[in-house]
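Supplementary Note 3. Input sequence used for the single-chain structure prediction.
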Amino acid sequence: MYARFTKLVCRALALAFVASVSITLLAQDSAKPAKAPANDSASKWDIFLGYSYLAPKGTVNGYAYGAVNYATIASVARFFNKNVGVQFEGDTHVLLPESGGPASASQPNNDFSGGSGGLIARFPNGNMTLFVHALFGAEQVGSYADPEAWGPVITLGGGMDADTPWFNHRLAVRVFQADYQYTHESFGAQGSEGFNVARLSAGLVLHVGAIAPPPPVTLACAASPTSIFPGDPVTVTATAGSLDPKLNAVYSWSGSGVTGSGTTATVATGSLAAGSYTVKAEVKEGRPGKEGLRPGQTADCSASLTVKAYEPPTISCSASPSIINPGDKSAITATGVSPQNRPLTYSYSAASGTVIGSGATASFDSTGAAPGAIGINCNVTDDKGQTATAGTSVTITAPPPPGPSPEQVQLETRLALHSVFFPTAQPRVEHPEGGLVASQQGTLTTLATDFKKYLVFKPDAHLTLSGHADVRGSVEYNQALSERRVARTKQFLVEQGVPEGSIDTRGLGKEEELTADQVKDLVEQNPDLGAPEREKVLRNLSVIVLAQNRRVDVTLSTTGQQSVRLYPFNAADSVTLIDERNLATRKKAAAVKK
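The predicted structure, written as discrete structure tokens, is reproduced below.
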């Protein structure tokens, strides 16, 4: 009786120890964050040693087998990866007869011992690992006689291990292992029996070795090119790393204008506005022919690209030659440049005239354009509708004025007449209409005739009459005398039909009088005088100087030509003009002196 009590106490203490350790570990796990294992690898070997409680259900010769509390269980599991392996397990459950002696006819040995092997699958989750196993082996069961019977056994069950920080996480506590077993035994003459067995175990697990987890799948994306204009092609490439060659890799893409299903995708940029865009890719591993994924074996990446706005074209424009005559042509050259090498078209316009051409060169025709600078616009447009304009100009020279007609030239030649000369003190105040001798009237008559014809060609032409007087007389007298002379000359011309508005007059009095040297030069250049006559005139130079200054000069406004100041020595009335009385007095004085 005492021995049985001692066995029960030991049994209770053992169960209490296992329970306390399990509860302590669970409390530690719930009280503070679980401490991750030293590495992320799974163990290659799991060695389990623990206590097992067995509850068989079976009857031999009317004897029902009872629970077995004294037991030891051990197993070794070899894992091929993180989850699946093979397991070999052995256990022994012994319950001696109540008397402590061997089996008898009334009470067999209540023993269950055996060994099995099979598959095990584990499912780690943090510090906790759940597992299931299926084993097949042989089981020895006690009977009324020795040797005890052996039979096949099937074990199905599972349990939970709690990782500990002990020995660098190499030691775990098997919180429980619950199994169902079925064994069939043949006891010879005693018959055969099938047993349904419930088994509950707990103990320690030693992790040995390590199975490194597969490296995580990586994925990198790259776009080429990364900066483009709308419509330019873009290719995005995804490069995966650490793929399992036994699994299928499935790629997917997303983003604006992105199409692709493999490791490359294209981006349709024609409809994209300017800005930044992101292309995303994802790779997933799955069993061949299936879409199922292995947990954790996915990766994604992204690549950026920039769509730039189209830059407008630029253009320069030139004309050659830039100065042309009316009706001539000039070559127009336009140089357009598109930063994106877009197709370009050209057009031209001009303020007047015509531009012919639609390419990079054109021709400006000045026909019908007025003289002066003509502005020309050179326009360029790309296939996106963006434009640019440059300008140049062509100067059309004014046509040269038409040359004078031969008749006009002759008239201008004839209008270069002699100046009109007056006698001394003529015309007088009391006879302002006098003073013009016959020869001078003839000169003015010819002048009037030619000038009226000249006005047909030059309607705005004018005659300017400038009156002079010799040195005798005061300034006031000579001024008035010179004004009377130009007035008389103008009156005569008007009488001959010259428009009064075409005649200007000015009296110069003592101004701009010819000197003796100037008169001498005029005498020597006079083609109407022979050598004897010229010598005779020069002997009376002082008288000739006076006569030379009693004149009216005539200037033509259009040419600026002035009348010739050659004195009319051969005129019939030249003596009257020279004032012969003054000359005779000088001759008489000279004779007396001689």
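The radius of gyration is 71 Å. Residues 1-39, 99-105, 583-587 have pLDDT under 50 and may be disordered.
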